Give the backbone structure.
Amino acid sequence: MTAPVAPEPERSSRGVFWVVAVLLVALVAGLIGVRVTGLLPSLTNPFAEQETDRSQPPLLQSIQDLSRYVAAEGNFQVVVDTQRNREHVPDFLLNERTLFVAAGSVEAYVDFSSISDDAIVVSEDGKTATITLPAPQLGETNLDQERSYVFSEEKGLLNRIGDAFGQDPNKQQAIYVLSEERIEAAARESELPQRAQENTTKMLEGLLRSLGYEKVTVTYTAP
């Protein structure tokens, strides 16, 4: 019977060497790819892919999409005193005086649609923005007919006789037009334009800071 042949020592040691080498490579790759919390806090893969976000916040020209921004609204009440009579004719014969209490509202808005490109300046680092806007404008007067009423009315004898045959519809319309003009004048003299400017500034400052701008300056052109 032939005795078994023992493996050559050189081949056996070479195989063990390659097994150990493969295990070492796998261990090093695992340590590089995975951070061992608490044991190897600073061991990271030096060849890992890195991504840096250098994109800027959205362009400020997007505020043009707001178009007409209603920044404030004022409610007003005025008394309109009108009188129609004729010289040298006694008031008890020909006279018409009306006290009309008019109530209405006026909106103050800023027109963003007319902003030009040079009205918006952004710093190179994207942290500062300066915007120049047109001054706030007043919208049309909205006369509230439910809250408007005739407080008192005086008429001469001839006026009463004329009303018996039909009232003049243009007379009432004239009072409404005059009331709207008085309310509009009251709105211009009030703090409504200033309030609209303050509200617009606060809105834009909050909006742009939320987009990443650290300093926002809003100015207005002369009305």
About this structure: Residues 71 and 199 are 6 Å apart (CA to CA). Confidence is low (pLDDT under 50) at residues 34-43, 53-59. The chain is about 35% helix and 25% strand.
